[in-house]
Amino acid sequence: MKKLAVVGDPDFTIGFMLAGISDIYEVASDDEIVKAVEDVLSRDDVGIVIIKQEYLRKLPPALRREIDERVEPTFVSVGGTGGVEELREKIRKAIGVDLWK
Question: Does residue 59 lie within any of the structural domains?
Answer without folding.
Answer: yes
